[in-house]
Write a structure and sequence with these properties.
There is one protein chain. The chain is of the alpha+beta class and 470 residues long. The protein is 52% helix and 8% strand. The chain has 2 domains: 5-275 and 418-469, 2-methylcitrate dehydratase PrpD (Orthogonal Bundle), CATH 1.10.4100.10; 280-408, 60s Ribosomal Protein L30, Chain: A, CATH 3.30.1330. The chain has 21 helices and 9 strands. A hairpin with a 4-residue loop joins strand 8 (395-400) and strand 9. The radius of gyration is 21 Å and the shape is globular.
Length: 470
Amino acid sequence: MADPIGTLADHALGLRYDRLPAALVATLKMAMIDTVGAILAGRYSLFGRTIIQRALETGGRGEAQLIGAGLRIPVAEAAFANAILGRCLELDDVHEGSPRTGYGHGGHINIAVMPAVLAALDVAPSPVAGTEVLAAMAAGGDLIARIRLAAGEAGRLGWEGPTVAPFGVVAAAGRILGLDRQTLLHAMSAAYSQCAGNVQSTTDGGWDVWLNAGTAARSGMLAVDLARRGFRGTSAPLLGTSGLYPLYFRGEYHEDALTGQLGEFFESQHVSVKPYASCKATHNAIYTAMRLQRDRGLAVQDIRRIVIHTSRYSLKLVGLDGSGQPKPMPSDVGKAQFHLGFTVATGLVHGTVMPDVLEAALHDPDVQRLSEATEVLHSAAKDELQKQRGYQPDDVTIEMTDGSSFTACEPYTIGHPSNPMSRSEVAEKFHNCIRLGTSPGGHIDAPFFLDLVDRLEDLPDARLLCRALA
């Protein structure tokens, strides 16, 4: 079987703006606003501040900007740092399960693509039309999700969307920087050599899962740079004897999931904007519990017990520790973001789950009591839904002290493509992110940036986006 990398390269370079559905264009614009907001908020976290400090100390050629920091650094390092800043508060969007394939979700995609696109624009030697940027974003995000989905169940054996994201970064940034087909193919090979990342740290609250996004963005940008300098790569990075699918995914490969309806159906359209700063696997239960509380008028002090039925996949991510026991009470925000009981309790007590709220919730006795009173159980029925949809709806039961009990299951969390946030809601989140991360030197021209994104398809030179963020 011929390696499909050539087909993917042709798709990335040949995709035209006028072939993009209007709904996809709107999704991509909101993804850019949402991702930049997450980047600006990132300095609120200790990891984000660590990344900024590292950039200040290591320096280098002032090519592309560290967004919101008033600093220019080498282009690959800018993509690396901005991606981590946007990922380290769990605020970036996530690909939902694919209705095209039914093979689950493609993971975090825009958090690798958007920082790379902006970094590439920052160093582009000539004007880049806004339509070209939209096509590049569509191709890059679509590619990441397709590559992971094509691995079927093996795609969720501990790998992440960012594991394969260097391919999508090459597709997006390579197009913006004008790579020809052969050079792009060599860059794709260099991208494969740098694929990395896993979800191990979700069990104990480590920072590794956020590092994955930065590694993916930097790897893709480095691959583009090497290819432009004459790097020669393998011609079979996907299906060769030691290619991605034989090596990373134990030989599982679904051709139709990778190339079916290429250029007609865009996985990059099927993403959720996250309303809560926590793992996506917690979102449906948070949303369902808060809706149940609102609709039934439930007082927090009268809640005796909460029971959540979820899939084995979500249970492993946000319900159990590394030894298979229920996760203990979190000691920091990072651990809290991957704790299903704690995030649900935070939403019920505080009405939202944002980083500063989670930090306060760590010392809130009401949140601690509800978290300890929450039981997370496995449901085989949810396993089947998870396989099809990626992030399945959970059953949430709230038991009251008077003996009454209420159960609900919201099919689509707010932010899901079937229950989307409005443009004004995304903008509100964007401004909240700015508020969260603002510090000396951290201001941007927010109205100018939002206006440019809104009319991106009409911009003769999208490098103006970088000026708005400087």
